[in-house]
Amino acid sequence: MNSFGNLFSPIKINGMTVKNRIFLPPMGTKLSTDKGEITDKLIEYYVNIARGGVGLITTEVADVEGTRRYNKLNIGLFDDLLIPGWKKLVDALHKYDVRVVVQLIHSGPVPLYNDPKVSPGQLGPVAASPVPHIYKLDVIPHELTIDEIHGITRLFRDAARRAKEVGCDGVEIHCGHNHGLLGSFVTPLSNKRADEYGGNLLNRMKFPLEIVKAIREENGPDYAIGARISGCNMEDGGLTIEDTCQMAKLFEAAGVDFFDVSNGTLHRPETILPCSGMPKALNAEYSRRIKQAVNVPVGSVGRINDPWTADDLIVTDKADFVYMGRALISDPELPSKAKEGDTDDIRPCVGCCECVSSVQYGGTFFKCTMNSSAGCEEKLETAELKKRILIVGGGPGGMEAARVATIRGHDVTIMEKTDRLGGQFILAAFPPLKQEFADGLRYKIQELNKLGVMVELNKTVTKQAIEEFAPDAVIVATGGNPIMPGWLQNSAHKKVISAWDALRGVKHPLGANILVIGGGLVGCETADYLVSPHNIRPISGGRKVTIIEMQDNIMTDDSSSNRVLLVERLHRKNVNIITGAKVEEVLPDGITYTSDGEKHSLKGIDTIITAMGTLPENSLYNELSDLGIPVMLIGDANKPSKIMNAIYEGAEAAKQL
Q: What is the mean pLDDT of residues 61-90?
């Protein structure tokens, strides 16, 4: 049963026919070798996506120049020696009737792999003009000469030739986000030239148009050529949608067959990597405008994470096809499930952006809060011996351990001390724009129900209870408790509570003037949740919220696009943020604190909320060393961390049973 007829209708792009309208966008994986070679692990990742029913896969960006690599572990098409790996990849994907397009990039002003100490032979940044890139503000790029521009055009042409030779069905050049070389040429934000390659829009487009014409000449009239463009730069002085529509017309006239419409620049990461709470299909209006301007297919990318939204974009003529990226990391089988009408079984993406952060900042392959097998989807091996497993704690780690252990054939019981499953997953959904975590929790509970996992709620577990249950192994996932120092707990102030209690709605009313001690993610999200939504304190019930933090900035360990939006909301709601401050004394109606060697005070505080971290709750685990059976400690009970880390620990523990 095809439940989304428009989404699963074929589409023809020049000489390429794609079986459906779901395309995978380019996303970095860091799975290549340091020479830019395709690895078996990278092939496994893409094959897994192909197996799930996607119509077209756009590979991550491929370098066209070997001496200015985009990053150390980026794939390349800059040398014929790389052809065998590409051939192996493309052949593997074609077995699933999937079309393959490679996105080509020249790193330009941002070669991340240019330290001569670790990358001999790598050269420095180049650009349209000597304007530094946001990633390298302390390095002024070399302004390309006209001869050098022509040389780079040949690099793109040669890379495209290799792409066709290995069987790729098309190529896409990256011209968006004020990023890479072509992105820096087309936008007035970075192109300050006054020659034939700068000044007005037509001149700024001359370089990418020459590249398109060179690729067309090299690869022939039927070969699919695409361009990634930003619908708008979202920056003062940057490209507008009117500019982009004109760019699209110029590209089409030069031979571009399709467009991949994104948005923004790297100065606004939330536009490129929109997180939980951002509008779904946030670039749909841009793709609609560009679609009206040209006569070739136009695709839209950005928070298209369910088949209803995707199908609607096509029905309403806002896009001809859709790019679904993080949604396919969460569930590679989304296309096939949607086509068969099994929408309840689609594992939702909650928009946490941990996948992006793990690759971009963690130096590892994708990790996903919803999918602990992200990228490999390995088949879980059935255990040699079925065991009776007790999991103490029904939070994220305990639930994942139960899921994996049950799939492996074990008899699993979860004992949870509260009246519901979820733990920190429940609290994660309370702050503004985080409601998608509730859907993530719904799905995880649904998985356990379908697997038949035994769940006992309102169950306080003791060593004696475990002995009576007689398990073959125990996984302790008892979580943690919010840090509540004695100087706060026993202070003169009448109401001191944890951020967890504030989010759960206990110990209310909180009053009109609230102080949050701790400016990490939990403290800031709690402030965002409690403060008056539109700074309407004069209206009855409005609240004033202050955050006080010892470090010189808030949320210093959060590298996701969520941080940008959260900080903006805190400022817009007029939350008072005090950094570089140490609380010295708690008073009956406030606190004193020091900052820059000076003493200050805050008075009239109705409630003090602590968001100072988490302490592991592992007392039960410490009692179980003499049980004579395997006992494993996971999640916050082991080491307080993110929900995703608890889930991965739970999965790994279950694989060891």
A: 95
Q: How is residue 499 written in tokens? A: 């951020």
- Assess contact for 125 and 142: CB atoms under 8 A: yes
72, 37 Cβ separation under 8 angstroms: no
What is the separation of C-alpha 624 from the centre of its chain, rounded to a whole number of angstroms?
A: 39
Closest CA to 301 of 381, 231, 401: 231
In degrees, to the nearest 5, what angle opens at C-alpha 447 toward C-alphas 445 and 451? 120
Give pLDDT, residue 374: 87
**Which DSSP category does 348 fall into?**
P
For the stretch 510-563, pLDDT in tens is: 889 999 999 999 999 999 999 987 765 555 557 899 999 999 999 998 877 888
Among 193, 197, 214, 217, smallest CA distance to 205 is for 197
- Least Cα distance to 525 among 481, 573, 490, 489 occurs for 573
| C-beta atoms surrounding 191 within 10 Å | 22
Report the C-alpha gap between 204 and 199 in whole angstroms.
7
- What is the rounded distance in angstroms from the CA atom of residue 487 to the CA atom of residue 367? 39
Output the CA torsion 303→503→511→556 (10° steps). -60
What are the tokens at 326? 């993080």
pTM of the model: 0.94
Angle formed by the axes of helices 146-165 and 83-94, nearest 10°: 50
- Output the DSSP codes for 225-236: EEEEEES---ST
d(Cα 527, Cα 329) in Å, to the nearest integer?
Answer: 31
Q: Where are the domains of the chain?
A: 11-360, 388-481+615-655, 484-612
The alpha carbon dihedral of 559, 63, 27, 365 has a sign of negative
If we measure between CA atoms, which residue out of 544, 539, 489 comes closest to residue 512? 544
Of 90-104, 291-305, 313-327, 525-539, the range with the lowest mean pLDDT is: 525-539
Check if 388-481+615-655 and 484-612 are the same fold: no
Candidate CATH numbers 3.50.50.60, 2.60.260.20, 3.40.50.1240, 3.40.50.720; the one for domain 484-612 = 3.50.50.60
* Helix/strand/coil for 512: coil
DSSP letter at 404 equals H
Beta bridge partners of 177: 265
DSSP string, 121-154: T----EESSS---GGGTT-PPEEPPHHHHHHHHH
Residue that is written with structure tokens 């994104």 in the block: 262
Largest CA distance in the chain: 83
Q: What is the pLDDT of residues 325-362, one digit of tens each?
A: 999 999 999 999 999 999 999 999 999 888 877 777 66
Helix (H) or strand (E) holding 599: strand 598-603
| Domain 388-481+615-655 class, CATH top level | alpha beta
Sign of the dihedral through C-alpha 348, 350, 351, 352: negative
DSSP for 532-547 reads: -TTS-TTSTT--EEEE
Contacts of 362 (CB under 8 A, 6+ apart): none
Name, in order, each residue with C-beta under 8 angstroms of 430's C-beta and a sequence gap of 6 or more: 503, 504, 529
Burial 448-459 (b: 16+ CB within 10 A, else e): beeeebebeeee
The CATH architecture that domain 11-360 belongs to is Alpha-Beta Barrel (3.20)
Query: Closest Cα to residue 270, out of 558, 59, 571?
Result: 558
